[in-house]
Amino acid sequence: MTLVLLAALSLMVIWAYIFTFRSRFPDESLFEAFDTQRGPERWPSLSVIVPARNEAELLRFTLPAVLSFYYPYLEIIVVDDCSEDATVQVAEEAAAAQGAANARVLRGSPPPPGWRGKLWALQQGLEASTGEWLLFADADVYFRANLARDLVRLALQGHYQMASLMVLLRTESFWDRLLIPPFFFFFHLLYPFHRVRSTRSRTAAAAGGCLLVERAALERAGGLSAVRDAWIDDVALGRALKRSGARTYLGATVQAACFRRYGTLRSIREMVVRSAFTQLRHSFPLLVLTLLALAFIFALPPVATALVMSGVVACSDLFHEFLLSLSVGMTVGLMILAYTPALRIYGLPVVWGFTLPAAAVVYALLTLESALRHALGSGPQWKGRRNR
Predict the structure, then answer these.
(1) DSSP string for 339-364
(2) Of 33, 163, 306, 333, whose CB count within 10 A is highest?
(3) How would residue 258 be classed by pLDDT, with cut points 50, 70 and 90?
């Protein structure tokens, strides 16, 4: 029974640490600026680069929003990443329909050896662009018209050389609501936004769907070629920029949303499996530690709560019984509180936080599948090829 009590107390301490130091979500982590603030003395020129591979269906909805950005000195470059559908035609028609003289479609070439597909598409757009600042925007993301202007303002006023935002993912089905908010939550646990922003912390990351970077800072970090072979390219780029001395901002926003529909466990599974083991640096010891951590930190609290409430687990004296009940209750409470910011962003009730342990179990299984695929030689792939 002493071991059970120690385990319960350990869980409580772990969740107290997570709640206090890892899940902290200060106001500046949520980007909700609107174009009502005073602008800088001079707006720098901005190039928006949109890599697109087989995105004809989504570009019909997302590209008009990008073309609607209002910004003093703006160019928009859509880079066709060797698409096999009507991506080029859709992009050209959208630009023509809105009379966007500052937009053009660049037909990209296949990635050379050592380059991932998406990064090579961005590199081609980078070489063709002229802006002092660059906004890398995923083709499946819908932006509000004021976002580019507000994000540049934030970077200039905060003296950041990179500002990146996690955009909303769609949560329409049960599987979406079960697994998408935890995806945000786990990312924030790994890379707490306030630590990414801190110059005293080595934590670095970025979100590739919306990434603003100063061209000069990118060049000092070695350019995109410094991360050309990275599967998780946004995190790698964030690290390269911070190592080079750039000040970096990472936050979340409700001003941009991914238009891609998941809806099923299978579609979410493919999104997670292709990168989970890469996130663990292809380390099987790290995989084992991760699975054990997910089981102990996330799956054990509800099990312990059920055992204590049912009387299956009990202590021989009232004091230790009180400690056991208190630690188990505090653990569950801290877990829900830590998860609440993610629930709030996705518009879910606090009570939905009780699904987090189930989601953690699913993610553990998907991470294991990701490792097995790597061991069997299938490895990650995206949109029909093994380099994005």
Answers:
(1) HHHHHHHTT--GGGGGGHHHHHHHHH
(2) 163
(3) very high
